[in-house]
Amino acid sequence: MTAIQTLLRGRTLSFLRWPDSAEDHGACAYEEDGAVLIADGVILAAGSYAGVKAKASPSAIVVDHHPHLILPGFIDAHVHFPQMQVIASYGAELLDWLNTYTFPEEQKFVDLQHGRRIARLFFDEILRNGTTTVAAYCSVHKSSVEAFFGEAHQRNMLTIAGKVMMDRNAPEALTDTPQSGYDDTKALISLWHGKGRQHYAVTPRFALTSSPAQMEMAGALMREHPDLHMQTHLSENHAEIAYALELYPNAGDYTAIYERYGLTGPKALFGHCIHLSEREADALSDSGSVAVFCPTSNLFLGSGLFDYQRLRTRQKPLRIAAASDVGGGTSYSMLRTMDEGYKVIALNGEKLNPLASFWQLTRGNAEALSLAARIGTLEPGTDADLVVLDSSATPAMRLRMETVGTLAEELFLLQTLGDDRAVREVYVAGKAMKADLAS
Ligand code: GUN
Ligand code: ZN
User: Fold this and answer.
1) How far, in Å, is the centroid of ligand 1 from the Cα of 102?
2) pTM above 0.90, yes or no
3) In ligand 1, which atom is closest to the CA atom of 233?
């Protein structure tokens, strides 16, 4: 029996490579009258409507999204799902913010039912914002990972997540031990990694909350499972950096702590990377590690300005992802995230062109997560995770659209004024999700 086919018609846009400028149309695949053909959750073809229609079965169901844009779903490369009730916590820098707001909140995730409730609301919220994949931190509790992956799996969403390992400098109720952190992680890997679309990430929270013995265990996990992602925080805040070096006095610099335990590499995702020395940036580049840009969080916590263009173009360039970092971050929307990202980059004396922004949210983040063979493009054979964007979603957007003349201008308008209201539909493995989201 042949699978049911769906033909989504609209203005299709995807990226082939980094766009050097707003005029670099060779970096994009854009069709004014385009289409994406889907069956069994996978993209069969994308391109001009006429070309794709010719490949479709006569019984294909046609959904017309004109005049809206159809893109690969957005990817958020760093977010804390247990911080939904931490977002918008007033008046603290990183370490005080963790102790005052975040650690108390994360303790609630000892309760599986609480974790399940927040996981449901979390996936509703990211989908409402057009995000179809996240790399997420759960709490220290195994049950929080169960809740997270359980909900992601039910929705057939591709995610990366892990239990934070933390054995010191946190409330008793939030600490594991090197052995229990290792054992719980092992158990979660065997339960969840490779189940449906779920990917496990070894997640030592950061050097401040992991003893050397725990860092050893995290390194052992990566040696035993070299295909896994590793996620942690690095060089976010000056007080954090100073404390890391106090706790690891022989390290030389913060990055060297992670290097020493074998935690750098192409699947290693380092949140923030704001205050790196040249040596640290070289070490991250040499190992193929990824620096994760979290603009709303970096502004909100007053952490500093990530130097996106310098790190991307230095002699030893860094691989870069972009992320919300909710709840240090202040929006679930990747449009809002890149709007703030644009301003951070502007404060560093550079500009990020709108094509590059949308490359970053789709193919760029997929490449940074080593997932571009599955998500982030409209290539045949990849998963049909898609977002449909309405550039005239609000009165202010509609009015500004009257003066927009190019695709790059339209994307910049979406980024600058858009949010969840601009997301008309979101598809996960070919399934339209929006109607089922809690409002
Ligand atoms: N560093 C360690 N934990 C966290 C966290 O939860 N959020 C942010 N922004 N930085 C961290
Ligand atoms: Zn974070």
Assistant:
1) 9
2) yes
3) 1
Nearest to residue 328, comparing CAs of 57, 38, 96, 46?
96
Give the CA distances from residue 272 to residues 23, 41, 78, 307, in Å, rounded to whole numbers and listed in that order.
30, 34, 10, 10
Which residues, 6+ apart, have CB-to-CB distance to 249 below 8 Å? Answer: none
Which residues does 343 contact at the CB level (< 8 Å), separation at least 6?
A: 295, 299
Q: Which helix (H) or strand (E) holds 191?
A: helix 178-192
Distances (CA, A) of 141 to 33, 114, 147, 221, 328: 48, 12, 10, 18, 20
Q: How far is the CA of 297 from the centre of ligand 1 (A)?
A: 9
**Which residues have any ligand 1 atom within 6 Å of their CB?**
80, 94, 98, 102, 205-206, 233, 236, 297, 325, 328
* The two three-digit tokens of residue 12, written as one number: 């299709």
Ligand 1 pocket test, pick from 138, 205, 240, 292 with the greatest ligand atom count within 8 Å of Cβ, gives 205
Residue 130 pLDDT > 80: yes
Q: What is the mean pLDDT of residues 306-319?
A: 98
User: Could you identify the atom of ligand 1 that is nearest to the CA of residue 327?
Assistant: 7
CA distance 65 to 70: 8
Gap between the Cα atoms of 290 and 438, Å rounded: 34
**Residue 71: predicted pLDDT:** 98
In the chain, the amino acid numbered 7 is L
- Angle, alpha carbons 433-3-386 (nearest 5°): 30
Q: What is the pLDDT of residue 439?
A: 77
Residue identifier of the C-alpha nearest atom 1 of ligand 1: 233
β partners of residue 12: 31, 70
Quickly list H helices, 261-378.
Answer: 278-287, 295-300, 308-313, 334-347, 354-359, 365-368
Structure tokens at 42: 């996978």
> How many angstroms is it from 236 CA to the middle of ligand 1?
8
